[in-house]
Amino acid sequence: MPAATLARLVLLEARRGGLPWLVAASVAVGLALAAFLSQVAMTESLRLQAAIVAALLRASAVFLIAAQVASSTLREINDKALELMLALPISRSTQYLGRFAGFTACAFVMAALFAAPLVVWAPIGSVALWGLSLGLECTLVAAATLFFAMTLAQLVPAIAAAAGLYLLGRSIAAVQAIAAGPLADPSIAHEAARWTVDFVALLLPRLDAVTRTEWLLYGPATAAGALWALGGLLVYTALVVVAGLFDFHRRNL
């Protein structure tokens, strides 16, 4: 199938581009940090190591998948390889979805590799849930970065836009809590700002509710809550992919 071939090419490019070495370096830094914390932490050493290493690995995974998607996509655009691909008797939907499938595979392989070291500090079930959530989160980041790379056609703006979307998704719940706090001034301007924040929150993925460190330490509060959060990631990823397909079909490359 053409889509499977494109996905394989994406994986091959990631391997030849040094992504496995970057993943290995990130894991090594995380383990070194854990070894350092084990020597300086006075209490709750294991939980402190798990929390900090998990946060570091999560940030590394998100950055690496965004950088890989943006650089790979823009290399094809700048080298005119994408134009050559479009000349083949393969639909644009197949080409776009094939690339996305390859990046999705990269995301889940990275998530598995980043989650594996955490079995030292957390139960396997909790690590598996955390790793699945990280894979879905990285898939969303890959979809968003692919959309921005195709739309903006520049490396730094594409990564910056994807990073902005990710950081807003991670922090919008805190912004809402601040806007609705009891110390806020009950003025018309404040109410308008609060409504604006609530509206923006409706347009963003709730990334603060997934891949949570406490899942490793204590397990999810409820299974239904975790499944609902992961389902939200899938829905938002599908919407971003549909938007990317629409933009890819309407553009003349």
Q: How would you describe this structure to a colleague?
A:
By secondary structure, this protein is mainly alpha-helical. The protein has one domain (2-250). It has helices at 2-16, 19-40, 45-78, 81-86, 92-115, 124-152, 155-179, 188-202, 213-218, 223-250.
Task: Summarize, please.
The protein is mainly α and 253 residues long. It has helices at 2-16, 19-40, 45-78, 81-86, 92-115, 124-152, 155-179, 188-202, 213-218, 223-250.
Features:
about 250 residues, mainly alpha
Write the layout of secondary structure elements.
Elements: H1 2-16, H2 19-40, H3 45-78, H4 81-86, H5 92-115, H6 124-152, H7 155-179, H8 188-202, H9 213-218, H10 223-250
How many domains would you count in the coordinates?
1
* Percentage beta strand: under 5%
User: Which consecutive residue ranges, at least 5 long each, have pLDDT under 50?
Assistant: none
Described by the principal axes of the CA atoms, the overall outline is: globular
The number of strands is 0
User: What's the gyration radius in Å?
Assistant: 20 Å
Give the SSE string.
Answer: HHHHHHHHHH
Biggest sheet architecture: none
Number of helices: 10
